[in-house]
Write a structure and sequence with these properties.
378 residues; 7 helices; elongated
């Protein structure tokens, strides 16, 4: 049996700033299991403890930039003085909103840092146990994996809130710019006295300070959203790899048996570039030359790497039946080919890949001796 894995070219993943819709479509398997109430055999859990040097994403600890009260003075009684009172009232309301947004930003940063530290502590515990060695499908590790997934989803929720907060801050920044411009224009109004211009000068300084601060906050928030989205994409791929490692009882690519299936195809296999009549190279070729073909680990690796590079990728899965023997042999090969197609589809959906992103087809070919399944990206 020959399994072919052709690694795709690396593509830079775009940072998603305005949305976290990838949470539903990202490659993320679902593992279930409860922490057992008693030890089984000699296996013991690894304590979960956040390491001081854990590679948590860069998150700035931000104390809220609290803007002070707007300076108030006695009305002058002029037309310009009335305009100043209106501008002062608007600036006061704007500063209150910005102070609220700043405090919310600090809270989200603190929550994200806490969730990240807890997540990395759990991941470290899982990796430690896998490095030492464990049983396949260890329920303790499954429970820890679920805890890590839950912490990662909390971070995703925080990023969604950050995105909404960024939209609010963008409106604040726009209003601050308009208010500053209106204050500056008030200097040109007729009917002012010297006290009006003195008050306008103070108000202009405060409006300018407000504009600078809200734009600085917006820039920091946008940067945090970009970093968190990039971090989320990498860690979802990491969770996918860990789920397979837990199922196998060891770290990925650690066994010689799985490496044996990452071979180049030989001359008897169908040409990977011609199955669909286009120039695409197959991402994976699985040859079902016996009943028990351990292809899933290598399939996980290939698909998860592709999804990490291009989260929007869809897949064409083509099953190929040998066109050899009499009519009975051909019918049996086609039936077996259909079974293989469904088996690979189940493997992909078990990884968390939505069925809507997988296209299925089947063909027959006289050049092969055993059933094959080819997987292409699009």
């Amino acid at each position: 049996m020959v399994f072919k894995l052709i690694r795709p070219l690396t593509v830079s993943a775009a940072l998603l700033v305005a949305s976290c819709s990838f949470v539903d479509d990202t490659l993320l398997p679902t593992l279930t299991g409860d922490t057992p109430s008693a030890k089984t055999g000699t296996d013991t859990s690894v304590p979960i403890a956040a390491s001081s040097d854990a590679a948590a994403p860069a998150v700035m600890t931000l104390n809220p930039y609290k803007l002070g009260d707007v300076t108030t003075t006695a009305p002058t009684g002029t037309v310009v003085g009335e305009r100043i009172e209106v501008l002062r009232t608007e600036l006061t309301a704007l500063r209150q909103r910005i102070n609220g947004h700043s405090a919310r930003f600090a809270g989200l940063q603190s929550a994200t840092a806490s969730n990240s530290q807890r997540y990395y502590g759990t991941i470290a515990a899982i990796n430690t146990r896998l490095q030492i060695g464990t049983t396949k499908g260890n329920p303790i590790l499954i429970s820890q994996w679920n805890e890590a997934q839950a912490d990662l989803e909390k971070i995703a929720v925080d990023v969604v809130e950050m995105t909404g907060l960024a939209n609010g801050m963008a409106e604040d920044a726009s209003e601050a710019g308009v208010l500053l411009s209106s204050t500056q224009s008030a200097f040109d109004l007729s009917g002012a006295i010297q006290e009006d211009h003195r008050q306008l000068t103070v108000l202009e300084d405060e409006a300018s300070q407000t504009s600078v601060l809200v734009n600085r906050l917006l820039s920091q928030l946008t940067g945090d959203i970009g970093r968190q989205n990039a971090y989320m994409g990498l860690e979802r791929s990491n969770l996918t790899d860990l789920s397979v490692a837990i199922e196998n009882g060891g770290l990925l690519n650690s066994s010689a048996s799985s490496q044996a299936y990452l071979k180049s195809e030989d001359s008897s296999s169908v040409d990977a570039t011609n199955v669909l009549g286009d120039n695409r190279q197959a991402l994976v070729i699985i040859r079902f030359d016996r009943d028990d073909v351990p292809y899933e680990e290598a399939l996980y690796n290939a698909v998860s790497q592709t999804m990490q590079a291009r989260p929007e990728t869809s897949f064409d899965v083509v099953t190929i039946a040998p066109l050899q023997g009499d009519s009975g042999d051909i019918a049996a090969n086609q039936a077996k080919s259909a079974e293989n197609l469904q088996r690979v589809l189940r493997s992909l959906t078990n990884m968390g890949l939505p069925a809507s992103r997988v296209s299925l087809s089947s063909i027959s070919n006289a050049q092969i001796a055993s059933n094959e399944v080819h997987i292409y990206t699009r």
